[in-house]
Amino acid sequence: xxxxxxxxxxxxxxxxxxxxxxxxxxxxxxxxxxxxxxxFASQCLLAGSCAMNFTPTFGWYYISPTRRTPSWSGVEFxxxxxxxxxxxxxxxxxxxxSQRELGDIIQLQKENDWYHTLVITKIENGEIFVSAHTNxxxxxxxxxxxxxxxxxxxxxxxxxxxxxxxxxxxxxGTELRL
Length: 178
What we know:
Layout: E1 3-5, H1 9-19, H2 37-49, E2 62-64, E3 67-68, H3 70-73, H4 75-84, E4 89-95, E5 105-110, E6 113-124, E7 127-132, E8 137-141, E9 149-160, H5 167-171
Antiparallel strand pairs: 1-9, 2-3, 4-9, 5-6, 5-9, 6-7, 7-8
């Protein structure tokens, strides 16, 4: 039986703010091979959940650049994992942007291609600000992006088997402890 806990939105946002304009040495930078935005969102999600799903192919984990699931760094695979996950790790529902919260994920579409993943790091006077990698951004207004459609992945919670305290070593870029 799995335990459930709240997603730590503050930890996810703290992580995003620390690493938005640089790279955590624990993770590969995928910017030159398709983009680093979803890997960055995954890192933020990990900081707020401290739980990976090690199910081969359809889970959500990162061990090394060659030992990771497609959902760690692929926009569509990331969406599919979060929406369908019934096992260990974070899970989400798609909601209208009006129901966003800090630490939630926004994905953007252009010309029928879901191409970019962003983390909500600030909400001020109704304006959504996001942080991201590839084209690095820290608290950039969502309104500055050009896209045809967007979708909000509202993180509902986290399922886990054994509670691990991973935030400090992850945040400091010293260890992946799970």
